[in-house]
Protein backbone atom coordinates (compact mmCIF):
# COMPACT_ATOMS: atom_id res chain seq x y z
CA UNK A 1 0.00 0.00 0.00
CA UNK A 2 2.91 2.36 0.73
CA UNK A 3 4.24 1.87 -2.79
CA UNK A 4 0.78 2.60 -4.21
CA UNK A 5 0.60 5.82 -2.20
CA UNK A 6 4.02 6.87 -3.47
CA UNK A 7 3.01 6.37 -7.10
CA UNK A 8 -0.26 8.27 -6.58
CA UNK A 9 1.56 11.12 -4.87
CA UNK A 10 4.17 11.26 -7.63
CA UNK A 11 1.47 11.38 -10.30
CA UNK A 12 -0.44 14.12 -8.48
CA UNK A 13 2.75 16.17 -8.09
CA UNK A 14 3.45 15.84 -11.80
CA UNK A 15 -0.06 17.13 -12.58
CA UNK A 16 -0.45 20.00 -10.10
CA UNK A 17 -2.35 22.14 -12.65
CA UNK A 18 -4.76 19.39 -13.64
CA UNK A 19 -6.94 16.73 -12.09
CA UNK A 20 -5.97 13.08 -12.40
CA UNK A 21 -8.90 10.72 -12.77
CA UNK A 22 -9.38 7.81 -10.42
CA UNK A 23 -9.68 5.57 -13.46
CA UNK A 24 -6.27 6.67 -14.77
CA UNK A 25 -4.64 6.03 -11.39
CA UNK A 26 -6.40 2.69 -11.17
CA UNK A 27 -5.07 1.64 -14.59
CA UNK A 28 -1.54 2.83 -13.89
CA UNK A 29 -1.35 0.91 -10.62
CA UNK A 30 -3.44 -2.11 -11.54
CA UNK A 31 -5.65 -1.69 -8.48
CA UNK A 32 -9.31 -0.90 -7.97
CA UNK A 33 -10.63 2.66 -7.83
CA UNK A 34 -11.68 1.91 -4.26
CA UNK A 35 -8.04 1.18 -3.40
CA UNK A 36 -7.06 4.49 -5.01
CA UNK A 37 -9.73 6.30 -2.99
CA UNK A 38 -8.44 4.73 0.24
CA UNK A 39 -4.89 5.85 -0.54
CA UNK A 40 -6.09 9.38 -1.29
CA UNK A 41 -7.82 9.49 2.09
CA UNK A 42 -4.67 8.28 3.83
CA UNK A 43 -2.67 11.03 2.14
CA UNK A 44 -5.25 13.57 3.30
CA UNK A 45 -4.92 12.31 6.87
CA UNK A 46 -1.17 12.82 6.65
CA UNK A 47 -1.78 16.46 5.79
CA UNK A 48 -1.73 16.59 2.00
CA UNK A 49 -4.47 18.89 0.71
CA UNK A 50 -6.14 17.08 -2.18
CA UNK A 51 -9.28 18.21 -3.95
CA UNK A 52 -11.58 15.35 -4.90
CA UNK A 53 -14.17 15.62 -7.67
CA UNK A 54 -16.49 12.82 -8.74
CA UNK A 55 -16.24 14.09 -12.31
CA UNK A 56 -12.64 15.28 -12.58
CA UNK A 57 -10.73 13.05 -10.17
CA UNK A 58 -8.03 14.28 -7.80
CA UNK A 59 -5.80 17.35 -7.64
CA UNK A 60 -2.95 18.06 -5.22
CA UNK A 61 -3.42 21.59 -3.87
CA UNK A 62 -0.83 21.79 -1.09
CA UNK A 63 2.10 19.81 0.30
CA UNK A 64 2.49 20.31 4.07
CA UNK A 65 5.63 20.35 6.18
CA UNK A 66 5.64 16.68 7.01
CA UNK A 67 8.44 14.16 7.14
CA UNK A 68 8.15 10.94 5.18
CA UNK A 69 10.50 8.91 3.00
CA UNK A 70 9.09 9.93 -0.38
CA UNK A 71 9.21 13.65 0.36
CA UNK A 72 12.87 13.30 1.34
CA UNK A 73 13.88 10.97 -1.50
CA UNK A 74 12.29 13.16 -4.17
CA UNK A 75 15.29 14.61 -5.98
CA UNK A 76 17.77 13.35 -3.37
CA UNK A 77 20.31 11.98 -5.83
CA UNK A 78 22.63 10.23 -3.35
CA UNK A 79 24.20 6.80 -3.84
CA UNK A 80 24.43 5.73 -0.19
CA UNK A 81 23.07 8.19 2.36
CA UNK A 82 19.27 8.05 2.55
CA UNK A 83 18.61 5.22 0.14
CA UNK A 84 16.84 3.47 3.01
CA UNK A 85 14.70 5.71 5.24
CA UNK A 86 12.59 4.74 8.27
CA UNK A 87 10.12 7.37 9.51
CA UNK A 88 8.10 7.37 12.74
CA UNK A 89 5.51 9.69 14.21
CA UNK A 90 6.91 8.90 17.67
CA UNK A 91 9.83 6.87 18.96
CA UNK A 92 11.95 6.72 22.10
CA UNK A 93 15.18 7.62 20.30
CA UNK A 94 16.15 7.56 16.63
CA UNK A 95 19.69 6.64 17.71
CA UNK A 96 18.39 3.60 19.60
CA UNK A 97 16.39 2.37 16.61
CA UNK A 98 19.26 3.04 14.22
CA UNK A 99 21.55 1.02 16.50
CA UNK A 100 19.12 -1.91 16.39
CA UNK A 101 19.00 -1.74 12.59
CA UNK A 102 22.80 -1.57 12.43
CA UNK A 103 23.17 -4.63 14.64
CA UNK A 104 20.86 -6.50 12.25
CA UNK A 105 23.07 -5.57 9.32
CA UNK A 106 21.24 -2.66 7.67
CA UNK A 107 22.86 -0.88 4.73
CA UNK A 108 25.43 1.85 5.05
CA UNK A 109 23.65 5.22 4.99
CA UNK A 110 20.34 4.01 6.45
CA UNK A 111 18.38 6.94 7.95
CA UNK A 112 15.92 6.98 10.86
CA UNK A 113 13.62 9.99 11.40
CA UNK A 114 10.89 10.81 13.90
CA UNK A 115 8.42 13.63 14.39
CA UNK A 116 8.79 13.23 18.15
CA UNK A 117 11.28 11.51 20.46
CA UNK A 118 10.28 10.59 23.99
CA UNK A 119 13.85 9.91 25.13
CA UNK A 120 15.97 12.10 22.91
CA UNK A 121 19.49 12.66 24.19
CA UNK A 122 22.54 14.77 23.54
CA UNK A 123 26.21 14.62 24.43
CA UNK A 124 27.43 13.54 27.86
CA UNK A 125 24.13 11.74 28.55
CA UNK A 126 22.05 14.92 28.61
CA UNK A 127 18.41 14.78 27.55
CA UNK A 128 17.36 16.54 24.32
CA UNK A 129 13.86 17.96 24.14
CA UNK A 130 12.40 16.66 20.85
CA UNK A 131 9.02 18.34 20.35
CA UNK A 132 6.68 16.89 17.76
CA UNK A 133 6.51 18.77 14.47
CA UNK A 134 9.01 21.40 15.63
CA UNK A 135 12.36 19.92 14.74
CA UNK A 136 14.41 17.46 12.77
CA UNK A 137 15.33 14.40 14.81
CA UNK A 138 17.43 12.10 12.67
CA UNK A 139 20.01 9.32 12.93
CA UNK A 140 22.19 7.89 10.19
CA UNK A 141 23.95 4.51 10.22
CA UNK A 142 27.46 4.71 8.76
CA UNK A 143 29.96 1.95 8.06
CA UNK A 144 33.09 3.96 7.24
CA UNK A 145 36.18 2.33 5.79
CA UNK A 146 38.49 4.09 8.25
CA UNK A 147 40.35 3.39 11.47
CA UNK A 148 39.41 4.47 14.97
CA UNK A 149 41.73 7.46 14.72
CA UNK A 150 39.43 9.03 12.10
CA UNK A 151 36.15 8.81 14.04
CA UNK A 152 36.47 12.40 15.27
CA UNK A 153 36.76 13.56 11.65
CA UNK A 154 33.35 12.05 10.91
CA UNK A 155 31.89 14.17 13.71
CA UNK A 156 33.49 17.30 12.27
CA UNK A 157 32.34 16.35 8.77
CA UNK A 158 28.74 16.01 9.92
CA UNK A 159 28.86 19.52 11.38
CA UNK A 160 30.20 20.87 8.09
CA UNK A 161 27.40 19.10 6.18
CA UNK A 162 24.73 20.70 8.37
CA UNK A 163 26.21 24.20 8.06
CA UNK A 164 26.45 23.87 4.27
CA UNK A 165 22.83 22.68 4.10
CA UNK A 166 21.63 25.66 6.19
CA UNK A 167 23.36 27.99 3.73
CA UNK A 168 22.09 26.16 0.65
CA UNK A 169 18.43 25.93 1.68
CA UNK A 170 17.90 29.02 3.85
CA UNK A 171 20.82 31.34 3.20
CA UNK A 172 21.82 31.11 6.87
CA UNK A 173 25.47 31.45 7.92
CA UNK A 174 25.90 29.25 10.98
CA UNK A 175 29.03 28.54 13.00
CA UNK A 176 30.49 25.40 14.56
CA UNK A 177 31.56 25.17 18.20
CA UNK A 178 34.10 22.38 18.61
CA UNK A 179 33.52 19.67 17.81
CA UNK A 180 30.01 19.69 16.39
CA UNK A 181 27.52 22.09 18.00
CA UNK A 182 25.92 24.35 15.38
CA UNK A 183 25.33 27.86 16.68
CA UNK A 184 23.54 31.03 15.57
CA UNK A 185 24.23 34.30 17.38
CA UNK A 186 25.98 32.43 20.17
CA UNK A 187 23.08 30.03 20.76
CA UNK A 188 22.80 26.34 19.93
CA UNK A 189 20.46 25.41 17.08
CA UNK A 190 21.70 21.89 16.34
CA UNK A 191 23.42 19.12 18.26
CA UNK A 192 25.22 16.10 16.83
CA UNK A 193 25.74 12.90 18.81
CA UNK A 194 28.08 10.17 17.58
CA UNK A 195 27.85 6.63 18.96
CA UNK A 196 30.01 3.74 17.85
CA UNK A 197 30.29 -0.05 17.88
CA UNK A 198 33.83 -1.34 17.50
CA UNK A 199 36.15 -4.26 18.15
CA UNK A 200 39.93 -3.92 18.49
CA UNK A 201 40.96 -1.59 15.63
CA UNK A 202 37.81 -2.08 13.56
CA UNK A 203 34.64 0.02 13.43
CA UNK A 204 31.53 -2.13 13.05
CA UNK A 205 29.23 0.84 12.59
CA UNK A 206 28.71 4.39 13.71
CA UNK A 207 25.43 6.14 14.53
CA UNK A 208 25.28 9.82 13.71
CA UNK A 209 22.44 11.53 15.57
CA UNK A 210 21.41 15.01 14.41
CA UNK A 211 18.88 17.15 16.30
CA UNK A 212 17.82 20.52 14.84
CA UNK A 213 15.54 23.09 16.41
CA UNK A 214 13.52 24.07 13.36
CA UNK A 215 10.39 26.07 14.20
CA UNK A 216 10.45 26.43 17.99
CA UNK A 217 9.30 29.71 19.52
CA UNK A 218 11.42 31.02 22.37
CA UNK A 219 8.63 30.24 24.87
CA UNK A 220 8.74 26.58 23.84
CA UNK A 221 12.24 26.08 25.21
CA UNK A 222 12.62 25.21 28.90
CA UNK A 223 13.31 28.44 30.79
CA UNK A 224 16.71 27.24 32.01
CA UNK A 225 18.13 26.99 28.45
CA UNK A 226 16.51 29.98 26.71
CA UNK A 227 19.71 32.00 27.03
CA UNK A 228 21.68 29.39 25.08
CA UNK A 229 19.20 27.69 22.72
CA UNK A 230 17.55 28.96 19.55
CA UNK A 231 15.78 27.70 16.44
CA UNK A 232 16.03 28.36 12.73
CA UNK A 233 12.60 29.99 12.94
CA UNK A 234 13.65 32.44 15.65
CA UNK A 235 16.81 33.38 13.76
CA UNK A 236 15.02 33.88 10.42
CA UNK A 237 12.38 36.08 12.01
CA UNK A 238 14.80 38.24 14.00
CA UNK A 239 17.62 38.57 11.48
CA UNK A 240 15.98 38.27 8.07
CA UNK A 241 12.34 39.16 8.70
CA UNK A 242 11.32 35.80 7.23
CA UNK A 243 8.84 33.21 8.44
CA UNK A 244 10.01 29.62 8.84
CA UNK A 245 6.81 28.47 7.11
CA UNK A 246 8.51 29.39 3.83
CA UNK A 247 10.68 26.31 4.27
CA UNK A 248 10.00 22.61 4.64
CA UNK A 249 11.92 20.28 6.90
CA UNK A 250 12.05 17.61 4.19
CA UNK A 251 13.97 20.00 1.91
CA UNK A 252 16.52 20.71 4.63
CA UNK A 253 16.87 17.02 5.47
CA UNK A 254 17.47 16.24 1.80
CA UNK A 255 20.18 18.90 1.62
CA UNK A 256 21.88 17.58 4.78
CA UNK A 257 21.93 14.03 3.44
CA UNK A 258 23.34 15.23 0.13
CA UNK A 259 26.09 17.29 1.79
CA UNK A 260 26.80 14.45 4.21
CA UNK A 261 27.41 12.03 1.35
CA UNK A 262 29.98 14.40 -0.15
CA UNK A 263 32.01 14.64 3.05
CA UNK A 264 31.52 10.91 3.73
CA UNK A 265 33.08 10.13 0.36
CA UNK A 266 36.03 12.34 1.31
CA UNK A 267 36.48 10.44 4.57
CA UNK A 268 36.45 7.07 2.82
CA UNK A 269 38.94 8.42 0.27
CA UNK A 270 41.35 9.47 3.04
CA UNK A 271 40.85 13.22 2.59
CA UNK A 272 40.50 14.09 6.27
CA UNK A 273 42.68 17.15 5.82
CA UNK A 274 40.20 18.71 3.39
CA UNK A 275 37.38 18.27 5.90
CA UNK A 276 39.41 19.81 8.74
CA UNK A 277 40.19 22.88 6.64
CA UNK A 278 36.52 23.21 5.70
CA UNK A 279 35.53 22.89 9.36
CA UNK A 280 37.91 25.70 10.29
CA UNK A 281 36.07 28.08 7.93
CA UNK A 282 32.99 27.87 10.15
CA UNK A 283 34.66 27.54 13.56
CA UNK A 284 33.52 29.87 16.33
CA UNK A 285 35.99 28.24 18.73
CA UNK A 286 39.43 28.93 17.29
CA UNK A 287 41.11 32.01 18.69
CA UNK A 288 38.69 32.16 21.63
CA UNK A 289 39.17 31.64 25.35
CA UNK A 290 37.84 28.22 26.34
CA UNK A 291 37.20 26.26 29.50
CA UNK A 292 37.84 22.52 29.27
CA UNK A 293 36.13 20.13 31.66
CA UNK A 294 37.19 16.48 31.57
CA UNK A 295 36.21 14.17 34.40
CA UNK A 296 37.38 15.95 37.58
CA UNK A 297 39.78 18.29 35.80
CA UNK A 298 39.12 21.85 34.57
CA UNK A 299 41.44 24.35 32.93
CA UNK A 300 41.35 27.41 30.67
CA UNK A 301 43.29 28.46 27.61
CA UNK A 302 43.09 29.73 24.05
CA UNK A 303 41.84 27.38 21.30
CA UNK A 304 44.60 27.64 18.70
CA UNK A 305 43.92 24.99 16.09
CA UNK A 306 42.37 21.65 15.13
CA UNK A 307 44.79 18.94 13.98
CA UNK A 308 44.33 16.39 11.20
CA UNK A 309 42.66 13.96 13.62
CA UNK A 310 40.09 16.53 14.77
CA UNK A 311 41.75 17.22 18.13
CA UNK A 312 41.40 20.72 19.53
CA UNK A 313 44.78 22.32 20.26
CA UNK A 314 44.58 24.52 23.36
CA UNK A 315 47.35 26.68 24.81
CA UNK A 316 46.81 26.98 28.55
CA UNK A 317 47.36 30.12 30.56
CA UNK A 318 50.70 28.72 31.81
CA UNK A 319 51.93 28.13 28.24
CA UNK A 320 51.29 24.38 28.19
CA UNK A 321 49.77 23.08 24.96
CA UNK A 322 47.15 20.34 25.14
CA UNK A 323 45.44 18.22 22.50
CA UNK A 324 41.75 17.74 23.36
CA UNK A 325 39.90 14.75 21.95
CA UNK A 326 36.92 14.67 24.31
CA UNK A 327 35.37 16.56 27.18
CA UNK A 328 33.11 19.55 27.64
CA UNK A 329 34.34 22.74 26.03
CA UNK A 330 32.86 26.15 26.91
CA UNK A 331 33.68 29.08 24.63
CA UNK A 332 33.54 32.63 25.94
CA UNK A 333 30.56 34.44 24.43
CA UNK A 334 28.75 31.26 23.38
CA UNK A 335 25.89 29.23 24.88
CA UNK A 336 25.57 31.36 27.99
CA UNK A 337 29.27 31.31 28.94
CA UNK A 338 30.54 34.82 29.71
Mean pLDDT: 90
Beta-strand fraction estimate: 25-35%
CATH class group of the largest domain: Alpha Beta
At the third CATH level, what is the topology name of the largest domain? BirA Bifunctional Protein, domain 2
The Cα radius of gyration reads 22 Å
Q: Could you give the count of β-strands?
A: 14
Shape: elongated
Oligomer: single chain
Order of helices and strands: HHHEEHEHEEHEEEEHHHEEEEE
CATH architecture of the largest domain, please? 2-Layer Sandwich
Relevant CATH superfamily of the largest domain: Bira Bifunctional Protein, Domain 2
Distance between the termini: 55 Å
Q: Which ranges are low-confidence, i.e. pLDDT below 50, for 5 or more consecutive residues?
A: none
Order of strands in the sheet with most strands:
3-4-5-9-8-7-6
The class by helix and strand makeup works out as alpha+beta
* Tally of separate helices: 9
Percent of residues in helices comes to: 25-40%
Largest sheet at a glance?
Answer: 7 strands, mixed
Question: Structurally, how many domains make up the residues?
Answer: 3
Give a written overview of the molecule.
The protein has helices spanning 2-14, 22-29, 33-46, 69-73, 94-103, 151-170, 232-240, 249-268, 272-282; strands at 49-53, 57-62, 85-88, 111-114, 135-142, 175-177, 181-184, 187-199, 202-213, 289-294, 297-306, 312-316, 321-324, 328-331. It has 338 residues and is an alpha+beta fold. It folds into 3 domains: 1-62, Winged helix-like DNA-binding domain superfamily/Winged helix DNA-binding domain (Arc Repressor Mutant, subunit A); 69-282, BirA Bifunctional Protein, domain 2; 288-331, Roll (SH3 type barrels), CATH 2.30.30. Pfam families: BPL_C, BPL_LplA_LipB, HTH_11.
Amino acid sequence: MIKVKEVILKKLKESTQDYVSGEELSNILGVSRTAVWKCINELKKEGYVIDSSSKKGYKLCYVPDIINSWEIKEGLGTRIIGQNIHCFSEIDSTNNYAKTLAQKGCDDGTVVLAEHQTQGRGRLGRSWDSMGGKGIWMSIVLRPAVGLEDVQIITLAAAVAVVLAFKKVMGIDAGIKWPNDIVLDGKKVCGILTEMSMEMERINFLILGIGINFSHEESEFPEEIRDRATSLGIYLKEKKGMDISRFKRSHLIRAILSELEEVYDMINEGKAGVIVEEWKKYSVTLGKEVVIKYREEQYTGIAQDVDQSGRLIVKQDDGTVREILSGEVSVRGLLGYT
